[in-house]
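Below is how a single chain appears once it has passed through the pipeline. First comes the sequence as given, then the structure the pipeline wrote out for it. We keep one example in the README because the format questions we get most often are answered faster by looking than by reading.
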Amino acid sequence: MSQDARAIIHVDMDAFYASVEQRDQPTLAGKPVIVGGHAQRGVVLAASYEVRPFGVRSAMSMVEALRRAPHAIVVPPRFSAYAAASEEVFAIFRRFTPLVEPLSLDEAFLDVTASRALFGDAATIATHIRAEIARSVRLPASAGIAAVKFVAKIASDVAKPNGQRAVPSAETCAFLAPLPISRLWGVGAKTEASLKRLGLHTIADVAAADPDWLERRSPGGRHLWELSNGIDPRDVIPDRAAKSIGAEDTFDQDLDRGDLAPHLHAQASRVARRLRQAEVKARVVQLKLKLSDFTLITRRSTLPEPTDDGQVIFHAAQALLERVPSFGRTRLTGVSAAELIAQGPQLGLFTPPVSRSARLNAALDRINARYGGDTVATADVTLLDERDDGPRGRG
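Resulting structure:
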């Protein structure tokens, strides 16, 4: 990859939830592990590589997964453990570049174009990142390196598990050419069938087609032609450019209203840490509830002043919950922060002292960044967590 080209890395943790369980429970190492919900109503949240040869995949119903792999070991999800591991991984990303675009808890794009002067070429940076994740978080990760996001994403998929693949700019079209059209972003089953009726089966076929002809016959055809030719000018958008920052959990079992507080507290704490990492504060807090009948309820409020403090966000979320009339059992809660503003130094002759809560948050962030996402917490978090015995699913 030339030094003039952009350098984009896509890092994707391998079977993330299952890998965390195998790390934390050594007896599961090398075993076919499914992280999932109830055997009758749940879905597979993660499948270890040992169980994948039996056709078990994420988002598959647990009924089907256990039919295919009755010998698999099923473990309930521990969302707090996954969130803690994710925070450690993202802290490693930010050692190499501030341009980190999270896609989920376990994957992100990194723009390391400017970082090459400090850390070496993009492939070397990816190697260092994966090695540090393996050393300090004890989890496997795969990486794809390319000049554009689309190609980097495919490269990391090809590299799995626990590998990396670099695609130099000059080799982009050759790398994409033999891949099936289903690899193109935006090509689902319906679009795939439509393209195949046009005689297009591989990415090379789409790349060779006339873009105007393709656009007339398939909605978004020109975009697919551009991707097939390695054209993807989208930038890596870091967290601080986001319009909101949120966290939500889908529960393995529906919860009563009185059981929601620990989850809201954990979500508020995660949101606050991400706000501080992005160096922004929020003016608005939003609460999201999804009931057992899939009814969606949202409430939002404007804070007296912008904040990045988890306690403030939690109390705002609690107040919003109290405003919701009586409702049945809940399958999902979420807390998000919106109307973000960048934190800037205070100017003036007399600068107010740093608040006690800010000093506490800074201390907690330093300790948790060094030793793990939830090494220490405030006392009320601990008390709430002691009440939180219900497993949680992927958010």
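The two ends are 36 Å apart (CA to CA).

See the next section for the split statistics.
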